[in-house]
Design a protein that fits this description.
The complex is a heterodimer of chains A (743) and B (563). Chain A is α/β, with parallel strands linked by helices and 743 residues long. Chain A contains 27 helices and 28 strands. Chain B has 563 residues and is mostly helical. The model of chain B is unreliable at 1-15, 31-41 and 559-563 (pLDDT under 50). Classes of the chains: A alpha/beta (743), B mainly alpha (563).
Chain lengths: 743, 563
Amino acid sequence: MTNWREKAAAALRQWNGPLTNDLVLTPGQFGLGQVPARLQPDDTTTVVCGYCSTGCGLNVHLREGRAINITADSNYPVNLGMACPKGWEALTPLAAPDRATTPYLRNSRGELEPVDWERAMVLFCERFKAIQQEHGPESVAWLGTGQICTEELALLGALGKFGMGMIHGDGNTRQCMATAVSAYKESFGFDAPPFTYADFEESDVIILFGSNLCIAHPILWQRILRNRNCPEIIAVDPRKTETAMASTQHFAIRPKSDLTLLYGLANLLIAGGSMDHEYIAAHTNEFDRFAKFASHFTTDRVAAETGLSQDDLWRFAQTIARGKRVSFWWTMGVNQGHEATRTAQAIINLALLTGNMGRPGTGANSITGQCNAMGSRLFSNTTNLIGGHDLGNPQHRAKVAGILGMEEQRIPTQPSLAYDQIIDGIASGKIRGLWVIATNSAHSWIHQTEIRELFAKLDFLVVQDMYHNTDTAQLADLVLPAAGWGEKEGTFINSERRIGLLKRVSKAPGQALSDFNIFKLVAQYWGCGALFEKWSSPEAAFQILKEFSRGQPCDITGIADYAALDACGGIQWPWTDSTTTPLPERRLLEDGRYYHPDGRARFVFEEPRPMAEIPDEAFPFLLLTGRGSSAQWHTQTRTGKSDVLRKLAPAHVYVEMHPDDARHLGVEPASLVTVTSRRGALDALAFVTATVQPGQVFIPMHYVSTNRLTFPSFDHYSRQPSYKACAVSIHPAGKTPTRPRVS
Amino acid sequence: MPGMIAELPDEGTLLRTVIDKLLEEQQQLTAVERFSRRHEAHAVPAHSRYYRDLIPRTKPGEGQQYAFGVDLDACTGCKGCVSACHSLNGLDDDELWRNVGLLHSGTSAYQQTVTTACHHCVDPACMNGCPVLAYDKDPKTGIVRHLDDQCIGCQYCVLKCPYEVPKYSKARGIVRKCDMCSARLAEGEAPACVQACPNGAITIGLIDRAALTVGTRTADRLLPGTVSSAYALPTTTYRTRRSIPADAAAGDAGVFRLQEAHWPLVFMLVFSQMSVGIFAALAALPVSGGAAAALAVTGAGLLHLGLAASVFHLGKPLGAWRAFLGLRRSWMSREIVAFGGLAGIASACAALHSLPFVAPVVPATAIIANLIPYRLGEGLAVGAALLGLLAIYCSAMIYIDTQRPCWAAGHTVRKFFGTAALLGIAGAAGVLAWMDVVSPGGYEGVWQALMLAAVGIHCVLFGVDVAWLTRGLSTGFTYQHRAARALWLQRQGAIFVTAALFCSSTLLALAALIFTGLPAALSATASLGLTIGAQIIDRYFYFVASEPFRMPGPVPIRQEEHS
């Protein structure tokens, strides 16, 4: 009976058919496992990811040369077969329907209207030249990016300053790694992050300052988990982040008390005799002055200012003292602060005084943000002269002019204004024309309302982007359609100085051009095309970059070409020996020789200062901002285009607040609250959680309204904005604010 | 892998499992697997070196099956598993088979991301509910596979699964779900999520099914806030060395979420229940002739209307004929078969009752009319009423069987049979009121008594609903509270409309009792219409205020879910 019934049922069940076939898998070949049959590749190639500075290798599955799918590259030395959702979804934003497929010009009705490249270029040059003629070369500036290739950044910098005669250009890298640059330059003598990712695996103590690695750089957290020394992992963060949860020790200091904490730790280590006398004597300067300075940071004082207990401080210092290979890592929690450079240097000081430099598993290491932050640091020709050179140095100027075959006078001696100073320049009328490339200032810049008003004041605003509808493009007079990651060639330089290769695996839509080609086009129309004749392709430009780097700490003259980069899985700078193959992982400073003329590192320090806007009775909460999830990237112009990534992050802006604060304010979980600062307000959904401390709230930076609230304060040395400190008030939405209680 | 935990058993079973594990491990010969360089020639995937320790080296034995294991301590929320699953399985743009949620505490600084997919249950609720046997639990691997070409898109599995696993695609008209990458496992490859986790947090293990069948207690749950594991016997193991705080809750616990309305089902339920009520009235009342015919035709018409509406709920209606296949386990099958039978009986009943009126006009039917005794029609009415009540019971069981807290047995039975009683009686009253207009005096007392009864029933039902809502709003954090809050916050207007419909229908019913003749019939009909409207909104509430059990959700949130 049962048998009969089963047979009948089996006959009436359709095990196969068109719907079933949609999901059939098939061997992918090329070392892949099984892949969806309808996405079987006929070839694969490795491309470096275009989101963050981790610089993962993505294995692009190709059919007839076009990308059809992506997996994480199993062999790339950075990510060892893994990727975060942004990498997995890297192709999706390319196919978005709102790609800019033609230049757009704002017409008399105030709408953006498609125009052809010819008209766009003629207008571009006409308008910017007219502004320069009337107001001088300083009146037109550019805001660049860490999201385009090094070759493109270099061409932009050279074109802007040497070809178009601009003085001021800066990039959104000011928002992410300017602090690390200033700190390394002053302490080491060159902007030289010394580490390699293998150091994560070699340490016995790993200290993360202001770094939510699990979310912001998941693949680097993976490298920590590969560490076989059962390392102590210390997270220093006001919030109990995913990383703090996964660490072995978490110190939830008061926001912006990290500089005091670091000096206090130095004091404890020095007082406890845990310094490496030999290293200090052989490789550093200014230690005695530093030791005297640090002695003022008593445990009493540091405990009171950081909110940690004295036991916590002892435990922290002891962990460092007992470690044989201690590595210190920092990210945006440090870089984005009002005294960020000194904080980064205070981390460097700890590594120097304990001799945790130049050996496996050690170092004072900056993990940066964008995929090509370091390409920008070295080659963008903005604050520095191209190739890590000094604008004020006549020899450097002669070298650069010689390589480019141009007269030295084309190199301006006047330093460029920083991002915030360019914005101030718009306010004062000094800057009247602006060219924004691959960044979304109208969302990302601190105190957003102001920058939007100022952009409207400009005589001419050009925005060059993949999408015609970014917050910034919507304000533009002219939009230039750019090809994106995967639609062009070039190189990125990641956090560990690895130069990785970007390849063309997808066709740019419509008339979109690579940024490199747009710059070439501008040079032609501007009338300085001859100057850039040698820059015939990104790879030709790479050969020019090699010449810029010659003799510098970042010398890459030993890298033959793109094929060499591809074969090696990227190559870290420096590399000067073209006859051998570089090791897959190399660190700097193994010989203890720093980049100051005397070969020594410096202890740099300064008395801490209070943050600019301290919570008070009217605005009793301190607003922290930062990354919300691994599925969102910055202003979401790209990640917002993927259904998958959108599903992996909350669609609506939310604010994390402590249950005690929520109770006091009568805020129910998931209800709408109004968050107000002196500069603006937003409505957010309350995420009531004890991972934030009472009196503090957190809002992810990915939502366009977040920067309505932030307070424009900047590190004095790096000019990096302090995004993680402003005073706000909170009350349930729709209700009149009652007198807020200070908790 | 560092960071991986080999085994984290309960303390009680510590000794046995650790020893067993070590003994088992000792018997594995791993030199070839671990040190062979075959992969360099692409004989095996280049990626296999990362995952070969994360999947079993042997196929499941007798009584065993594959199961996901999740090391919560290693899950740090990167969500790479979700994307990898999407890309390596070639899913639709907005289709996710795996998800990452969040547990957090309201009192201590604790948060834990939770990766989750299908739990490949030992007693799969989806499979037990499927009316067409579109789910198959592989006897060897235990993987619960969905047969995409068998699916008719009824979405009952979506309601049945307490872990939100089956995903309905409107464009495809079917449901799809995680199959643990069975094709990959068959070739010795790891599932996509296992391959992609940078921290090795997801593993595939072998479990003994009997251990779950016998050992699962009602109080067991996968994680705080999830359904009792006794319901479906999920096989996934979540492990952690940290202690989960007692007050740990899902990231989106504060969100009061309305569920899908399933409009075709709303209409199907209301009309089919009304139809059964009318057949019951026909069977019970001393009516004959034109009145009986009118009732039978109305009842049959409503039933067909309801069944027609239900077809719109199916993604693949052409496959609906297979619905009897699941009769042994699925209440959905039983309901479809019962209503299918009812449709036949009801139609026959209506036809027989109508014959005397059709025969004079269409001579051919007169022959049949003479052949069939009139009493057969009466018998069919009784049959329709009884089968109808059984069908309504099946309808109720469909929802009760989902274990949704808001679809409790008493609540559901009261609503479904309440509608049948209310609309059956009110509907019969309406029909007879019109018969009274056609031939005055015949049924005046009857329909007035019915009208009065309907008013009484409506008052009771409405009163119970109001009590449910107010109790829900005032009680603590129960599912009823969450449902009541969701309705109150997001559908307040509709609540007041229902109240208005109740009041006006009651007033009109009372007015009908005062009037006579045509005005009375018109008032009764208007009252009936408004009552049906109120019941439709009530059934809509039944669907939208039915928050299911699910795995922990992520950080809130969408605004539209809230206000």
